[in-house]
């Protein structure tokens, strides 16, 4: 006989026992673990943002938890853990020097020089361990600001929680 059970605030965990040579699964009531979530994705709406300041990717594509501010251009960590950040940007007309800033320091720097081309792309994918209160953003340098956006060309900044920090002393 097949019976479906709807999961609610409580769920069941199985425990195996041997009875008369058969394996029997006992169901023990337990708590549903809540999954921590933090994610954003935002696009640049105007080309050539101001240099040496957080780039404001103000066209928000996803930000349900509100961890990214399109006003400041900064991701604000509220859940300690391991995060993935990426950008895929269009570079046009001049070179670009793009820095990912975390812990108030340029952690990763990349350069797109446009050798013999008018337009190109640059991208990055990086994993960082963050604590609550940490901030992450992108900047371009003064003389290397070819970061571009138009109706035909996008520049996007994305970040999400890969997994939360494990709390010691608390069983999973």
Architecture overview:
The structure is a single chain. The relative contact order is 0.24. This protein has a single domain (39-164), classed as Sandwich (Jelly Rolls). The strands form two sheets. Strands 3, 4, 5, 6, 7, 8, 9, 10 and 11 form a nine-stranded antiparallel β-sheet that branches. Strands 1-2 form a two-stranded antiparallel sheet. The protein is built from no helices and eleven strands. Residues 1-28 have low confidence and may be disordered. It is an all-beta fold.
What Rg do the Cα atoms give?
23 Å
Classified by CATH, the class is: Mainly Beta
Helix content: under 10%
Shape: elongated
Number of helices: 0
Query: Do you know the CATH architecture?
Result: Sandwich
Number of domains: 1
Give the biggest beta sheet. Answer: 9 strands, antiparallel
Detail the poorly predicted runs. 1-28
What is the CATH topology assignment?
Jelly Rolls
The total count of strands amounts to 11
- Strand fraction equals over 45%
The overall average pLDDT, rounded, is: 83
Structural class, by secondary structure, is mainly beta
N- to C-terminal distance: 32 Å
N to C succession of SSEs: EEEEEEEEEEE
């Amino acid at each position: 006989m097949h019976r479906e059970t709807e999961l609610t605030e409580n769920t069941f965990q199985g425990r195996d026992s041997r009875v008369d040579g058969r394996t029997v699964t006992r169901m023990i009531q337990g708590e549903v673990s809540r999954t921590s979530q933090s994610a954003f994705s935002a696009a640049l709406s105007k080309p050539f943002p101001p240099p040496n300041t957080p780039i404001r990717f103000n066209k928000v594509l996803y930000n349900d938890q509100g961890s990214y501010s399109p006003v400041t251009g900064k991701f604000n960590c509220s859940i300690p853990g391991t995060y993935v950040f990426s950008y895929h940007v269009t570079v046009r007309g001049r070179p670009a020097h793009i820095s990912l800033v975390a812990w108030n320091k340029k952690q990763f720097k990349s350069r797109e020089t446009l050798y013999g081309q008018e337009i190109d792309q640059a991208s990055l994918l990086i994993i960082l361990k963050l604590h609550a209160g940490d901030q992450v953003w992108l900047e371009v340098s003064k003389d290397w600001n070819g970061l571009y956006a138009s109706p035909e060309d996008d520049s996007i900044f994305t970040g999400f929680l890969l997994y939360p920090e494990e709390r010691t002393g608390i069983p999973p």
